[in-house]
């Protein structure tokens, strides 16, 4: 990656298993359970799906269905409550599960003068908090409908997943007059192939089996991180 200034560009990053280990919605569920938004049975179900997601990837989890269940968590609650909850889970859980290497790459893009946007199926408010806390440019997430500031359980434009990510990424680039051929995208999932193919610089991060084969066939760069890297990063911070 060059640090030389040049044409404006954007680096798009998936979140789950790309920027952080595991599924952000599970940690949202834990925080919601602690605030008594959901039951113990609900959080146990989220825990089971988190385990499958960690070891199998999106192939082994019905992500759209799980996302819809996650949206049910905050139905009847306010946007302020979700933002507060998001800050809590970032401080107590997400910050400890970030992939240091991916975060470093995102910050390198910023240093090089590029914008960095998260593109994720998680709720827009949660995505905004993650982007804010990591000092990134912004986030594109699933938009939830509200009435008088209270979530109704309805979605606006569907879940930001699969081909939808490519649509919103294109909209952001076009609004800024940025050539997508100069942009980057990072993801672990074959579901994000439309997003990866949209840009001139796709990168597979801890790819699932399908994406790995796809990336190898096209000569895309592949980043591999291991849990040991997180432990090493934590240890260095304590010194």
Q: What does this entry look like structurally?
A:
The model is unreliable at 1-6, 43-62 and 228-239 (pLDDT under 50). This protein is α/β, with parallel strands linked by helices. Helix 1 runs antiparallel to helix 2, helix 1 (24-34) packs across helix 4 (79-92) and helix 4 packs across helix 6. It has a single domain (10-238), classed as HAD superfamily/HAD-like (Rossmann fold), CATH 3.40.50.1000. Helix 8 (193-198) links the parallel strand 5 (184-187) and strand 6 (201-205). It has helices at residues 24-34, 40-56, 63-73, 79-92, 100-111, 124-133, 163-175, 193-198, 209-218, 227-238; strands at residues 10-13, 115-123, 138-147, 150-156, 184-187, 201-205, 222-223. The protein has a seven-stranded mixed sheet.
Q: Main attributes?
A:
alpha/beta; Rossmann fold; disordered N terminus; 49% helix; single chain; seven-stranded mixed sheet; 239 residues
Q: What is the CATH-assigned architecture? A: 3-Layer(aba) Sandwich
The coarse overall form would be globular
- The strand line-up of the biggest sheet is 4-3-2-1-5-6-7
Number of helices: 10
The named CATH superfamily: HAD superfamily/HAD-like
Helix/strand class? alpha/beta
| Low-confidence sequence ranges | 1-6, 43-62, 228-239
In round numbers, the mean pLDDT is: 80
CATH class label: Alpha Beta
Topology:
Elements lengths: L9 E4 L10 H11 L5 H17 L6 H11 L5 H14 L7 H12 L3 E9 H10 L4 E10 L2 E7 L6 H13 L8 E4 L5 H6 L2 E5 L3 H10 L3 E2 L3 H12 L1
Parallel strand pairs: 1-2, 1-5, 2-3, 5-6, 6-7
Antiparallel strand pairs: 3-4
């Amino acid at each position: 990656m060059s640090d030389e200034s040049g044409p404006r560009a954007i680096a798009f990053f998936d979140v789950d298993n790309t920027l952080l280990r595991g599924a952000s919605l599970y940690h949202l569920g834990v925080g919601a359970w602690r605030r008594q938004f959901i039951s113990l049975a609900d959080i146990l179900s989220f825990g089971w799906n988190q385990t499958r997601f960690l070891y199998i990837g999106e192939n082994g989890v019905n992500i759209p269905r799980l996302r819809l269940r996650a949206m049910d968590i905050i139905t009847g609650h306010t946007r302020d409550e979700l933002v507060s909850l998001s800050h809590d889970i970032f401080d107590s859980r997400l910050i400890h599960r970030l992939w240091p290497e991916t975060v470093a790459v995102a910050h390198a893009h910023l240093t090089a003068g590029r914008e960095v946007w998260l593109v994720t199926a998680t709720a827009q408010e949660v995505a905004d908090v993650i982007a804010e806390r990591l000092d990134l440019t912004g986030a594109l997430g699933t938009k939830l409908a509200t009435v008088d500031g209270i979530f109704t359980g309805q979605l606006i434009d569907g879940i930001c997943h699969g081909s939808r990510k490519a649509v919103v990424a294109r909209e952001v680039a076009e609004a800024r007059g940025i050539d997508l051929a100069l942009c980057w995208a990072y993801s672990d999932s074959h579901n994000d192939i439309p997003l990866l193919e949209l840009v001139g610089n796709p990168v597979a991060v801890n790819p699932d089996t399908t994406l790995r084969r796809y990336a190898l066939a096209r000569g895309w760069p592949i980043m591999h991180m291991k849990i040991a890297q997180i432990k090493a990063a934590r240890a260095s911070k304590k010194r």
